[in-house]
Specification:
The structure is a homodimer of 321-residue chains. With 321 residues, chain A is an alpha/beta fold. Chain A has one domain: Rossmann fold (3-Layer(aba) Sandwich). Helices cover 37% and strands 15% of the residues of chain A. Chain A has an eight-stranded mixed beta sheet, sandwiched between helices. In chain A, strand 5, helix 6 and strand 6 form a beta-alpha-beta unit. The longest helix of chain A has 21 residues. Chain A starts with 11 loop residues before the first helix and ends in a 17-residue tail after the last helix. The C terminus of chain A is likely disordered.
Chain lengths: 321, 321
């Protein structure tokens, strides 16, 4: 999905150059990794039309982001960072972009991180956040979208499974950006990491899996939902780079979801990176991937709407948006 | 993607009932199979707002379908039927639906069929059709979409590869509905056919592969483009049922395309059948899949437009369709 080259364009090559200039992740302490990730809040500013509200109302801790044209529907966003780093500071810009494109009110959860709070703390916080959104009347399940990237993308799937097991109503749709769904890191693209991923460090990834899981099996379904029973999940959009470490996780998640009768859309983007939408302000295709996510949300919310009448009477020629 | 049940709704269960009532394919002669497939022209009428013109202008033989709101862009459609059956009669309704939803002028090619005309006749006719569309000024490559189902979906990919090898310009996008891209039928979902596919008969499918290929290898890249070099292909939409015989072909085509730096979107639909959009008039999700294809075309044509300026100035909040 390349476009004509123009000066100043937000291209893949320029992004690779920026990434190569970052310090090697293995040279940083945990605190330094967290600080570096959170510096996104200075690098990528939120559009002034988006109202950001800090929320600390047990059990929800995080931020609420309202774009100018927000409707009644909401998105619970679970950030990435290997369950070890990441916060509203690292992901505010991405959630603001997604909220604006989808016209959803974004709830960005500051879930507890490992190693201080290992599995299942993150998943428990996410399930509690959904309960809070529903119980407080902030949204209804059929107007709620779950979204997340990387570890947060895996957490989206694990949370949906936990909601089903708890007998709670399913959200209308879910979005997984480069989801990490197999903490054993055993699928070919992850195990080989060839060519080396410009964003993910394999050694750091494995350390994060250990920090989250401790002595538990890396195939624990609640942490590695590729191995979970996915029946009953809502329509799922999975986006990944065509050649990142987690490409095969995206493909296999799509295959597993379809095998469990879940409607799934998989987008593989060439000349893209792990969680490309996080880089939307410096990568044009990251912006386009957000637009695709918005179209997916629009269709899924229309489909989930209880008041939706069968579209028997509309003429074919009128059916196009 | 199920909706609330209402009387008369076009559900999966009702479609399965209709399919089960059809005569067993292995009990029919070749002529009977062709006649049965072509009876779609009576079962599924074309919207009166779509102008259907018979075209017999060498090298193009087929039909041109103009929906009410057609713009300058065009779609070359390659029908399914295992390279052995199928014609404008079997697919006029589907191309009319796709043309209306996408606002493209549809060119439905009546390519030569096997066993009378084995490989590479079908591919040669498809390449000649693209040349004709471009040489006669009917469309430009960057306003052209290739689409097809089943064998026609594989033929779309094989045609794109042949266009690249001939040094011709690439179309803007391609759509493969339940594509048959491996005539060796060796991927798990195809080889096992468990549970039995309600549309495809495995024995007939293998006979069709033999009719098209004769003594050639079933892995001939020009007939089984899963084994072709896919570099340089335009953005690709692949749709399939989540549990049809060709589900794994869809997944592996997506993986192969992404590995060749092709932008690919894979949609797997539960409670769906082989080439669900062909059944759009009796299956609601077939209609929805056509709507998804239209959204894909819209985004791909915008991206391929040579006059498209980088969208640097639009505000985030204005970017949603």
């Amino acid at each position: 999905m390349s476009a004509a080259k123009v000066p100043g364009e937000r291209t893949y090559e320029r992004l690779l150059g920026r990434l190569a200039a970052l310090p090697k992740q293995t040279s940083l302490t945990l605190d330094e990794l967290r600080t570096q990730y959170d510096s996104a809040e200075r690098a990528f500013r939120v559009d002034p039309g988006c109202v950001v509200e800090i929320v600390d109302e047990a059990p929800f801790r995080g931020e609420c982001l309202r774009p100018g044209q927000a409707g009644e529907a909401a998105m619970l966003y679970l950030h990435g960072g290997g369950y070890v780093i990441g916060s509203p500071r690292s992901h505010r810009h991405l959630v603001a972009d997604l909220a604006a494109a989808t016209r959803l009110t974004g709830y960005l959860l500051d879930y507890r991180l490992a190693p201080e709070h290992p599995y299942p703390a993150a998943r428990d916080d996410a399930v509690a956040a959904v309960r809070w959104l529903l119980d407080t009347g902030r949204t209804r399940a059929d107007r709620l979208v779950l979204a997340g990237d990387s570890a947060g993308g895996g957490l989206v799937v694990a949370t949906l499974v936990a909601l089903r097991e708890a007998g709670l109503p399913m959200p209308a749709a879910a979005i997984c950006l480069s989801p990490w769904v197999d903490l054993s890191c055993s699928l070919p693209s992850c195990a080989s990491n060839r060519p080396p991923d410009p964003v993910i460090d394999g050694e750091v990834l494995r350390a994060m899996a250990h920090a989250y899981l401790g002595q538990r099996s890396p195939r624990t379904p609640g942490a590695s939902p590729l191995f979970a029973d996915l029946r009953g999940l809502p329509p799922l959009l999975v986006q990944a780079a065509a050649d990142e470490m987690l490409t095969d996780e995206a493909v296999e998640l799509a295959r597993a979801a379809a095998g469990a009768e879940v409607a799934v859309t998989l987008e593989l983007w060439p000349r893209f990176v792990h969680v490309g939408p996080w880089y939307a302000r410096v990568l044009d295709d990251g912006r386009r991937a957000i637009d695709h996510a918005a179209r997916f949300v629009s269709a899924a919310l229309e489909l989930a709407s209880p008041g939706r009448a069968p579209r028997l009477s509309r003429r074919l020629s009128a059916r196009r948006r």
